[in-house]
From TrEMBL, chain A:
This is ABC transporter. The keyword ATP-binding applies. InterPro entries: AAA+_ATPase (IPR003593), ABC_carbohydrate_import_ATPase (IPR050107), ABC_transporter-like_ATP-bd (IPR003439), ABC_transporter-like_CS (IPR017871), P-loop_NTPase (IPR027417). SUPFAM superfamilies: P-loop containing nucleoside triphosphate hydrolases. One of its GO terms (molecular function) is ATP hydrolysis activity. Residues 5-243, 254-496 form the ABC transporter domain. Pfam families: ABC_tran. Keywords: ATP-binding, Cell membrane, Membrane, Nucleotide-binding, Repeat, Sugar transport, Translocase, Transport.
From TrEMBL, chain B:
One of its GO terms (cellular component) is plasma membrane. This is Sugar ABC transporter permease. The keyword Transmembrane helix applies. The chain crosses the membrane at residues 25-46, 58-79, 85-102, 109-129, 135-155, 176-197, 228-247, 283-302. It comes from Actibacterium mucosum KCTC 23349. Keywords: Cell membrane, Membrane, Transmembrane, Transmembrane helix.
Length: 500, 332
């Protein structure tokens, strides 16, 4: 039997929402099957059923021809099914080796941990996967980056005999370089006979990596085809079910007066940074994870305290470490992590939208619901937020709509400068293209934009010029013909640049 | 569901009466009301003759007035993500301050001013250490709980200070429309905090800060100012509690009457639906929690439960309240 694990006729309903309808998928050994679809298409639900988190209403996961009824994840793991989650679950206080072998540590006698064997076997596994340079068996896990955490979870899955490994948006928190290494690992898994499911919004990646590709839309499989028959455009069309406009809009425009001036700013994570942004200008900020891009943005916004230098808005110096003053001076900030930095998930769109505009939604210091509804409602409409009402909880929205709520909040303030930190991370193609269009619109209305992005095409496609950061410093400024993926990478990794 | 674009005129679906009731009052407050009913039935059937007498009901009201005021401000503190376990000691300290002020000046007004001022100062100490010393609020207020109690002992030399000012005593024993004055203070506090927490921008920011401080900071809310302000508020309200207590007992006492108040206030807040990590809690819930504690206290005395066992009951109630609150938090 060639298909080792299949999902047949899977349907799942949550209340009134038909999350999945009659989904059939088969996972073959030594093959990468890509699963794509917009947010809310049912990918996560499908993965949870595969992993036994909850059962389907109808249909079954079939392992080696026998329908399996998983009562919990443990059963799915026993059948060799593993899902590598977006946010890998590791114990921060344990070592790399302990995390890999957790629940099944080598013993000495009946009671004692055999630490020697533990570390030795971990070292062997790391070497086997070419990760010896990244992880040491005895290293504590509390300071590991997302890429390293992911490596630990992959090794854990393989070691436990995983024969079907699903990757759920694995590259969303990785730099391009880390992503390339992940692809090498995935190709290696495939060559050793593992069946791989690869879920991603990044269509170029998917085409590069996968053998077959399945498109999920509104809980149904729209198509499953060999990847050679598809292009990013054809896939995107199937995902959305309509033609997409060209992804990036760039309207050439006049640049206005100086809005932001950062002079010799240092903080705990950035050193002596200088930058200027004019009205109507989109300035990109590129670099690898940990290069200090978000930290620079936080220093400008007064979220992090600066230790030296000045931030000036419209010629006026901002007091350090004071977000309220920054907002007052006309800065808006959509941080990287929507769920933890931007939104109160248990509160409504109305409340989240009102957060930075107390003066517009209150009378004599008291919240004025009808005024708030007017102001936030208008911004929400302009952003085309899809939700049943303004009272819908932010936590119930899709990633794209959550980001639109954050943007709506700032638009209601009419900022002079908008800082967007990874504005399209984890957002589906449709919403992405809307946000790109919005960025262009805002710039043509004279708003200065500082755009942080790890997605090269986005950074290059949207920015008038881009600054590249590494080690907390701005290493280069690129514009026009110089603004290429290669150049950005060259400056993002200064040590390799000197070596070359 | 997510396919429809935003509809600003809220589409009202047809709901049953049950759903509307649960939606309005909240499942949590409904279950508290049920608990109240059970307590009333139990104590009513055991000692109905005394329990339902006007005298006992007013007694009960007096008993929960101070606790109620403290539980309401404690709710605001917990909503903002903090906790103040020094309030009982601040009450004790302010009774001593109030009594000393009146003893030396013979002016009721000065006593009231001293009470609120001393309470606010104590709160300022808490707030500054918590905010700028970056120490956990539980630890700081645990420490100041002992410190404030110690200061009260030092000032009073461990003695009770009597208050002979009649005008001031009226605060504790006077009545308006047949209802004792402290109960009016509780009602006023409840209305004030209800409006503050649910309607004012500053009050809504309490929920934002407690719900997620990072989000609040990104939204331009000055966390430090709010944190300090929260504890000053808590201290000042405890000062009001101290004034009421001093007026009722006619004395300033460093220890008696104020001990265990923090336990009961915090219990009431959690009974009322506060979440340990902040961002959740209501005045109505706190009042219901206070009622549960008041009836339990009163009923246990009426049915002659020994004092030692009453402590067991109170401690268990706090733990049960937090377990219940956490359970609800995890379910949603």
């Amino acid at each position: 039997m060639q298909d080792i694990i299949e999902m047949t006729g899977i349907s799942k309903r949550f209340g009134v929402v038909q999350a999945l309808a009659e989904v059939d998928l088969s996972f073959r050994p030594a093959e990468v099957l890509a699963l794509v679809g917009e947010n809310g298409a049912g990918k996560s639900t499908l993965m949870r059923i595969l992993e036994g988190v909850f059962p389907p209403d109808t249909g079954a996961v079939v392992v080696d021809g026998t329908p399996a009824a998983f009562a919990e994840s443990r059963d799915a793991h026993a059948a060799g099914i593993r899902v590598i989650h977006q946010e890998p679950e590791i114990v921060p206080d344990m070592t790399v080796a302990e995390n890999i072998f957790v629940g099944d540590m080598p013993r000495q006698g009946k009671w004692f941990l055999d630490r020697g064997a533990l570390n030795r076997r971990t070292a062997e596994l790391l070497a086997e996967f070419g990760m010896s340079g990244d992880l040491r068996p005895t290293q504590k896990c509390d300071r590991l980056g997302p890429a390293q955490r992911q490596m630990i979870e992959i090794i854990r899955a393989v070691r436990a005999g995983g024969r079907l490994i699903a990757f759920d948006e694995p590259t969303s928190s990785l730099t391009d370089d880390e992503a390339r290494r992940l692809f090498r690992i995935i190709r290696r898994l495939r060559s050793e006979g593992t069946a791989v499911i690869y879920i991603s919004h990044r269509l170029n990646e998917v085409i590069d990596l996968a053998d077959r590709i399945s498109v999920l839309r509104d809980g149904r499989i729209v198509s499953t085809t060999p990847v050679a028959e598809e292009t990013p455009d054809t896939i995107a069309q199937k995902m959305v079910g309509r033609e997409l406009n060209t992804l990036f809009h760039r309207t050439p425009k006049l640049q206005g007066e100086l809005v932001l001036e950062v002079a010799n700013v240092s903080s705990a994570h950035v050193q002596e940074t200088n930058l200027q942004i004019r009205a109507g200008e989109v300035v990109g900020l590129g670099g690898l994870m940990g290069a200090g891009r978000s930290e620079l943005a936080k220093a400008i916004f007064g979220f992090d305290r600066t230790t030296a230098g000045t931030v000036r808005m419209g010629g006026k110096t901002l007091p350090p470490g004071n977000t309220a003053a920054a907002i007052q001076a006309g800065i808006g900030f959509a941080p990287e992590d929507r769920k933890h930095e931007s939104l109160l998930l248990m509160r409504s769109i109305l409340e989240n939208g009102s957060m930075v505009i107390p003066d517009l939604v209150s009378t004599y210091g008291f919240f004025n619901r009808s005024r708030a509804k007017d102001v936030v409602g208008e911004a929400a409409k302009a952003m085309k937020i899809k939700a049943p009402s303004l009272d819908t909880l932010a936590g119930d929205l899709s990633g794209g709509n959550q980001q639109k709520v954050v943007l709506a909040r700032w638009l209601a303030r009419s900022p002079k400068l908008l800082i967007l930190d990874e504005p399209t991370r984890g957002i589906d193609v449709g919403a992405k293209s809307e946000i790109y269009k919005l960025i262009d619109d805002l710039a043509s209305r004279g708003i200065a934009i500082l755009l942080i992005s790890s997605e090269m095409p986005e950074l290059i496609g949207l920015s008038d010029r881009a600054l590249v950061m590494a080690d907390g410093r701005i290493q280069a400024e690129l514009a026009g013909d110089q603004l290429t993926e290669q150049n950005i990478l060259k400056h993002a990794m200064p040590e390799t640049a000197t070596a070359a | 569901m997510t396919d429809e674009t935003l509809n600003t005129s809220s589409a009202t679906a047809r709901q049953s009466l049950y759903e509307i009731t649960v939606g309005r009052i909240g499942i949590h407050n409904l279950s508290l009301m049920l608990a109240l009913l059970v307590l009333i039935v139990v104590f009513g059937s055991l000692r109905g003759d005394v329990f339902f007498s006007t005298r006992n009901l007013l007694n009960m009201g007096m008993g929960i007035a101070i606790l109620g005021v403290l539980a309401i401000s404690q709710t605001a503190v917990i909503v903002s993500g903090g906790l103040d376990i020094s309030v009982g000691s601040i009450v004790g300290l302010t009774t001593v301050a109030v009594a000393s002020a009146i003893q030396s000046s013979e002016a009721a007004g000065l006593g009231i001013a001293a009470g609120i001022l001393v309470g606010a100062m104590a709160g300022l100490v808490n707030g500054v250490i918590i905010t700028y010393g970056r120490v956990n609020a539980v630890i700081v207020t645990l420490g100041t709980m002992a410190i404030f109690r110690g200061i009260a002992f030092i000032i009073s030399n461990g003695q009770s200070i009597s208050i002979f000012n009649d005008a001031f005593r009226q605060i504790g024993i006077g009545r308006i429309l047949g209802i004792p004055f402290p109960i009016w203070v509780l009602v006023a506090t409840a209305i004030l905090f209800q409006v503050f927490l649910s309607k004012s921008i500053v009050g809504r920011n309490f929920y934002a800060i407690g719900g997620n401080p990072v989000v609040a900071k990104f939204a331009g809310i000055n966390l430090n100012r709010y944190r300090v302000g929260t504890y000053v508020m808590s201290g000042a309200v405890a000062g009001i509690g101290g004034i009421l207590l001093a007026a009722r007992t006619g004395s300033g006492q460093p220890i008696s009457g104020s001990q265990g108040l923090e336990l009961e206030a915090i219990t009431a807040a959690f009974l009322g639906g506060c979440a340990m990590q902040g961002g959740k809690g209501t005045v109505a819930g706190a009042l219901l929690g206070v009622a549960v504690i008041g009836i339990l206290n009163n009923g246990m005395i009426l049915t002659s439960v020994p004092t030692f066992y009453q402590l067991l009951a109170k401690g268990s109630l706090l733990i049960l309240a937090v377990i219940f609150a956490e359970y609800q938090q995890n379910r949603t």
